[in-house]
Design brief:
about 140 residues, mainly beta, Lipocalin, eight-stranded antiparallel barrel, about 55% strand, globular
Length: about 140
Amino acid sequence: MLGTWKLKTYLVTTAGMRSTPYGENPTGYLSYSADGRMQVVGTASGRIISRDRAPTNEEQIALHKTMFAYEGTYSVEAGKVTHHVDISWNEVWNSTDQVRCYEVNGNTLTITSRFIDAASGTEAHYVLVWEKVANPR
């Protein structure tokens, strides 16, 4: 898992319905370092571009809704990685443990998780597929 991974797909299945909330071509990176730290940032494809240098309040909301980011330490068990979140785009996640299942197959890292949507009470299954970034040297 060590190294940097580029986001290839972000798929959510809820009540049998599949969706790609970050579009068909999301952008993002996930890094795991040897010192036990991790960080992730991702954005949707087709994000708005502000008309001015400073986005309007509405543009800021749209930009926030089309990204995710957090950082912290991590621990690994067989098939499971726990992200111990220090800081996040979602303040609710700060100081929490985000448990994910994972599988590495060659240069592909698949991370899955299940959440209960607070608004609907429905379980959602998330599958994020990442591709290993080649060493630039």
